[in-house]
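quick q for whoever's on today - can somebody do inverse folding on this one?? i tried earlier but teh output was garbage lol. tokens:
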């Protein structure tokens, strides 16, 4: 049997130096002898300053994907394989914004033109005194144009496809996410959005019947630049902040579904991919640019080329045309209703700059973009054991930039027989007394991991702790230790500390971390291991006719708050929350309260429906609908345990009495971390207070909880089945 061999000619051009075929390197002008029907992995090599551009073939060879730098070649006869390179950076400001790769040799003050591939619009771009590349025209992307909408993808835009799909498709709201110029149809105060924003060529108020400063303006209309600048510039498009943020920072968005968003900045926007809105405020990029021009107003606005096109308010009135300019930043202002904007005025015929003006997010402002190319990262997960381990996440890829600096890790919880998973470590863990510890940076499943853009590829190692000998479900009053002792929960192998305290009762000294959103955990819930009947637990697990109001959450809720049903429609464990817990997970460590040394895990926040295992919800396994009555007798504590009673005669109060009303001794015994609580959409009191449910209700709407902000007992109308509030859960052994 004879195998036919064929000659493949190798050609490289324009910076490509050689081709590797199955790891064998072939230079330009050489040949490879390959068998008929064989397949081979090919990749290119390049001289310094060049990178992959394309493959081409002739003769009897074919490629699986010619646009890919590494691909598969199939040989059916003789032929030629050609690799073409291209400069890895550009020495001039030309091309498309999305593919712009400037060389470091470009000097400050250099200008040029780049084209937005989404709509073909060309913009002036300059490298300014701060050493950064800035858009010198107002963004003119028409989000109401169907062709433009079709071109909005995460490959072309500084936003994820999830956010962009919300922007394009409405996400359950009306068209608050669309761009606007001139005036809008109506302002919907109940939803804090525009119900029909559009590009307007005739409006009302100052420009009625096409009169006034901008009665017939379009995005291409030329208007004078600010004082001290020669020439004129295009109006571009005015955007409310919902539109500017690509739908990520709206009243009702792809993340929160309803309510005002939170967070210090919009990390997604409608700038082209590789570009983003500048940061604002006293320490933002507008301020840095101003400082780079020696705080010279004229030099600053002359560099940015700012046309005087004003803004418009949420009632459709046009303001300050020919007098001022307003440019969005990505940075939140002092109030949740504002975003900081650059403000340039021309009242006295000399430029006046205010870098810290706040503008209502409902108003229309212009957008400038700053070049900030994304860095690709790869996160690999290592089980860190030779034992069998399941649910290890697959390798994760993505990209990040100097504002969006983190990756959200896979929400898998690895499993290993006889061990509890403690989290991830970016260096090889050390082990002492069968407990892994991290000498580097730790991260929890589903948590944020800050990507080092200089070393964007990282391996995360699982950390483990061997399970204690005693399960919490097997603890009895006689076997409860008088010193802090570790036990494990058979439902998820989480490890906790328990102790018999001064009141003679056995207490859980950690916040509960039972993840009710985890399918494996839910499957393990039964009346054998949980303080609830199978009837109630099945309601908790299967829905019982309501939405997922019964699930645990941490940080803020992702779903809408349904006032008719007094529940969250999709609460979950959230890792990209706001405030002090922007990157908290259930395993994040926070300080203990007053008088206590050390720290503890924050655990999971539960609304009362979740804490009561679905037994005390608006609509539950017993009542079907309506507000329940009485106290919660079932909950998500382990079998044999329950939530403590509350109020002036409850077990929290009795424990405080047992410590002679010494608040420091009381909270020191309970080891209460300052994990705070969660409201409708915001995290509250993190690192300030610890709050813990009791089983005692206060009327039909609320439940008592322990508040260790002042180590006092409180029923501050917080929480309860008709409240979005969520706090921590502790358990006490039944006696």
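ok took a stab at it. sequence:
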């Amino acid at each position: 049997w004879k195998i036919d061999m064929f000659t493949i000619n190798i050609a490289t051009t324009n910076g490509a130096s050689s081709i590797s075929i199955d790891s064998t390197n072939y230079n330009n002008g050489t040949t490879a002898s390959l068998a008929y029907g064989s397949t081979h992995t090919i990749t290119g090599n390049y001289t310094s300053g060049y990178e992959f551009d394309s493959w081409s073939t002739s003769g009897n060879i074919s490629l699986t994907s010619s646009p890919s730098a590494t691909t598969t070649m199939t040989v059916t006869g003789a032929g030629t394989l050609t690799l073409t390179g291209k400069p890895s950076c550009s020495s001039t400001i030309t091309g498309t914004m999305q593919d712009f790769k400037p060389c470091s040799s470009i000097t400050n003050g250099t200008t040029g033109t780049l084209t937005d591939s989404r709509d073909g619009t060309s913009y002036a771009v300059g490298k300014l005194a701060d050493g950064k590349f800035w858009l010198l025209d107002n963004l003119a992307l028409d989000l109401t144009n169907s062709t433009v909408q079709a071109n909005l993808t995460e490959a072309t835009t500084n936003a994820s496809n999830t956010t962009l799909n919300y922007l394009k498709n409405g996400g359950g709201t009306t068209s608050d996410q669309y761009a606007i110029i001139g005036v809008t149809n109506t302002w919907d105060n109940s939803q804090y959005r525009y119900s029909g924003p559009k590009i307007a060529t005739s409006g009302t108020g100052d420009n009625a019947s096409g009169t006034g400063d901008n009665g017939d303006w379009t995005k291409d209309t030329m208007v004078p630049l600010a004082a001290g600048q020669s020439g004129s510039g295009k109006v571009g498009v005015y955007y409310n902040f919902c539109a500017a943020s690509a739908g990520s920072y709206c009243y009702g968005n792809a993340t929160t579904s309803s309510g005002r968003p939170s967070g210090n900045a919009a990390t997604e926007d409608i700038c082209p991919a590789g570009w983003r809105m500048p940061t604002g405020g006293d320490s933002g990029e507008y301020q840095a640019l101003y400082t780079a021009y020696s705080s010279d107003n004229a030099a600053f606005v002359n560099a940015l080329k700012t046309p005087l096109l004003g803004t418009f308010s949420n009632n459709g009135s046009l303001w300050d045309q020919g007098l001022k300019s307003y440019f969005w930043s990505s940075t939140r202002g002092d109030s949740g209703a504002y975003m900081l904007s650059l403000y340039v005025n021309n009242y006295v015929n000399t430029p006046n700059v205010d870098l810290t003006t706040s503008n209502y997010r409902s108003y229309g402002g212009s957008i400038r973009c700053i070049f900030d190319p994304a860095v690709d990262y790869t996160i690999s997960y290592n089980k860190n054991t030779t034992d069998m381990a399941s649910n290890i996440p697959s390798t994760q890829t993505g990209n990040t930039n100097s504002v969006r600096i983190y990756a959200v890790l896979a929400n898998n919880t690895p499993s290993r027989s006889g061990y509890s998973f403690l989290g991830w470590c970016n260096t090889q863990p050390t082990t002492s007394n069968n407990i892994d510890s991290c000498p580097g940076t730790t991260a929890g499943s589903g948590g944020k991991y800050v990507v080092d853009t200089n070393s964007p590829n990282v391996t995360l190692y699982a950390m483990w702790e061997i399970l204690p000998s005693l399960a919490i479900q097997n603890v009895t009053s006689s076997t409860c230790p008088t010193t802090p002792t570790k036990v494990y929960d058979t439902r998820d192998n989480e490890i906790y500390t328990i102790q018999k305290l001064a009141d003679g009762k056995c207490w859980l000294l950690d916040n509960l971390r039972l993840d009710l959103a985890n399918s494996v955990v839910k499957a393990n819930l039964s009346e054998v291991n949980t303080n609830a009947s199978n009837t109630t637990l099945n309601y908790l697990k299967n829905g019982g006719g309501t939405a997922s109001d019964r699930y645990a959450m941490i940080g803020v809720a992702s779903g809408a708050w349904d006032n008719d049903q007094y529940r969250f429609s999709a609460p979950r464990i959230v890792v990209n929350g706001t405030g002090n817990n922007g990157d908290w997970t259930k395993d994040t460590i926070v300080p203990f309260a007053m008088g206590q040394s050390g720290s503890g895990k924050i655990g999971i926040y539960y609304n009362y429906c979740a804490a009561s295992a679905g037994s005390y919800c608006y609509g539950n396994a017993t009542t079907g609908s309506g507000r329940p009555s009485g106290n919660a007798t079932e909950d998500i504590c382990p079998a044999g345990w329950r939530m403590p009673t509350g109020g002036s005669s409850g077990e929290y109060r009795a424990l405080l009495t047992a410590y002679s009303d010494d608040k420091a001794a009381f909270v020191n015994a309970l080891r209460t971390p300052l994990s705070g609580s969660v409201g409708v959409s915001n995290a509250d009191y993190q690192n300030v207070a610890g709050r813990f449910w009791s089983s005692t209700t206060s009327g039909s709407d609320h439940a008592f909880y322990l508040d260790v902000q002042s180590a006092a007992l409180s029923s501050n109308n917080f929480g309860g089945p008709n409240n979005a509030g969520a706090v921590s859960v502790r358990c006490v052994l039944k006696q």
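fwiw The chain has a mean pLDDT of 78. also Residues 161-169 form the longest helix (9 residues). so keep that in mind when u check it
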